[in-house]
C-alpha cells in the first residue's frame, strides 16, 4: 500500500510539473509576440541585418567592415530622429556625412525605416542605450 501511494504521488507530481511547464510556455509565447511587435525590437533586427556589419551590433562602430573605411568613425552618435530618418533614406552625403553610407529608401519599407529610427535613437543615446536588448 505504501509503494502504491508513492507511485501515485510521483505521477501526480510529474503531471503537475508538465502542466506548469505548458502554462509557462504559453505565457512565454505571448510575451515573445508582445515584445516582437515593438518597433525598437523590429528595428534592432533590421539594423543588425543591414547596418551591423558597418556600425557594429551595438552601434559602437566596432564591426567587421569598419576597418575597410580607414579612420572613419562609424559609431552611431546621438542625433535627432529626423537626422536618422534622412540619413537612412537618402544616405550620408545628404547630411554632409560620408558618401559610403548608402541610401536605403528603396530597400527598406516605411515601417522598417521607422523601426530602425526607433532603435538607433535609443542606441545613439548614451543614457538610454541600456533600454535596448542586443
Q: Any overview of this molecule?
A:
The model has no long low-confidence stretch (mean pLDDT 83). The longest helix is centred in the N-terminal third of the chain and has 35 residues, at 2-36. This protein has helices spanning 2-36, 39-50, 52-55, 81-90, 110-123. With 134 residues, it is an all-alpha fold. The chain has 2 domains: 1-37; 38-131, Cytochrome Bc1 Complex, Chain D, domain 2, CATH 1.10.760.
Q: How would you concisely characterize the structure shown here?
A:
With 134 residues, the protein is mainly alpha-helical. It has helices at residues 2-36, 39-50, 52-55, 81-90, 110-123.
Features of the shown structure:
134 residues; mainly alpha; Cytochrome Bc1 Complex, Chain D, domain 2; 2 domains; 5 helices; 0% strand
Note the total helix count.
5
> Which fold name corresponds to the CATH topology of the largest domain?
Cytochrome Bc1 Complex, Chain D, domain 2
Averaged pLDDT, please? 83
Total domain modules: 2
What would CATH call the architecture of the largest domain? Answer: Orthogonal Bundle
Distance between the termini: 56 Å
Structural class: mainly alpha
The CATH class designation of the largest domain is Mainly Alpha
Topology:
Blueprint: H1 2-36, H2 39-50, H3 52-55, H4 81-90, H5 110-123
Amino acid at each position: 500500500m505504501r509503494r502504491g501511494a508513492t507511485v501515485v504521488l510521483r505521477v501526480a507530481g510529474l503531471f503537475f510539473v508538465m502542466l506548469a511547464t505548458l502554462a509557462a510556455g504559453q505565457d512565454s509565447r505571448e510575451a515573445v509576440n508582445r515584445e516582437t511587435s515593438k518597433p525598437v525590437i523590429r528595428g534592432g533586427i533590421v539594423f543588425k541585418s543591414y547596418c551591423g556589419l558597418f556600425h557594429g551590433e551595438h552601434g559602437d562602430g566596432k564591426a567587421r567592415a569598419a576597418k575597410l573605411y580607414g579612420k572613419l568613425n562609424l559609431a552611431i552618435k546621438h542625433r535627432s530622429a529626423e537626422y536618422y530618418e534622412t540619413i537612412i533614406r537618402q544616405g550620408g552625403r545628404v547630411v554632409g556625412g560620408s558618401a559610403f553610407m548608402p541610401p536605403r529608401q528603396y530597400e527598406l519599407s516605411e515601417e522598417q525605416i521607422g523601426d530602425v529610427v526607433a532603435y538607433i535613437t535609443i542606441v545613439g543615446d548614451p543614457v538610454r542605450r541600456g533600454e535596448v536588448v542586443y
